[in-house]
Amino acid sequence: MPARDKSPSTAVDRALGMLEALADSAQGLTNSELSRRLAIPKSSASYLLRALERRGYVRRDPESGRYRPGLKVLSLNREVLTGLGIRDAAQPILRQLVERSGLTAHLAVLDQGQAVYIEKVDAPGFIKMDTWVGRRMDLHSTSVGKSLVAHLPAPEVESLFRERGLRKRTPKTLTSLPRLVKELEKVRAQGYAVDDEENNLGARCVGAPVMGPDRQVQAAVGVSGTTSQINRDTLAKVAELVQEAARKISRQLG
């Protein structure tokens, strides 16, 4: 094994990379898949996974061999979320938004160049969104992501997306920076953002920014549904409800 692989910082970095990869995979990942994704030897991946499993940070399905985040991660997640006052302020407003719209509602914040869901309220019925608290989403292909960055200075926006790239999630994803910049101008002008099957085909989402006392964006509220639920006839009303919810949360923040 090369000397750099023995470094504690390298091991920590790899272990954290594993946890992030597992958190981003609804089906879980095998040792081989993690090894390929992180570009590390299978033996190193196996060693780290065993250590994480012993401490409860990952769990392994004995039948499929797939690893998923363990319950220990949830305890850390709970402690982090407890410190986010905006989540407490938003919960009743999100529930009201779901009742009025019939759609699943999310609250997201900007973290390390991605949108992270910190709260979710499911809509009633059989249609469920494949999202969860803690899930990290691309900024350019989601309504909450666009809402989070639309008010950033132009140089900061360009630097952010030049560094992270514009991954093509569907044929409708905006993968050109000039087109995305124009889209963000539209978001600022109308006060809300739309994900029109840009992150998942068949799904449409509407988001709006939550402003803090300093008039800086603190979070974003969004609703998600199918393209039949959010269509040409319902979009304006849904956008109005989302913007109203965002304003209510903003007022709660002072």
Topology overview:
Blueprint: H1 8-23, H2 31-38, H3 42-54, E1 58-60, E2 67-69, H4 71-82, H5 85-101, E3 104-111, E4 114-121, E5 136-137, H6 143-149, H7 154-164, H8 177-190, E6 193-196, E7 203-211, E8 217-226, H9 235-252
Antiparallel strand pairs: 1-2, 3-4, 3-8, 4-5, 6-7, 7-8
Feature tags:
about 250 residues, Beta-Lactamase, alpha+beta, Arc Repressor Mutant, subunit A, two-stranded antiparallel sheet, 8 strands, disordered N terminus
User: What coarse outline follows from CA principal-axis ratios?
Assistant: globular
Rg from Cα: 19 Å
Number of helices: 9
Tell me about the biggest sheet? 6 strands, antiparallel
Residue-averaged pLDDT, rounded?
89
**What's the number of domains?**
2
- Assembly status: single chain
Q: What class do helices, strands and sheet pairing give?
A: alpha+beta
Our measurement of the CA-to-CA distance between the termini, rounded to an integer number of angstroms, reads 55 Å
Task: Note the beta-strand portion.
Answer: 15-25%
Q: Mind telling me the CATH superfamily name of the largest domain?
A: GAF domain
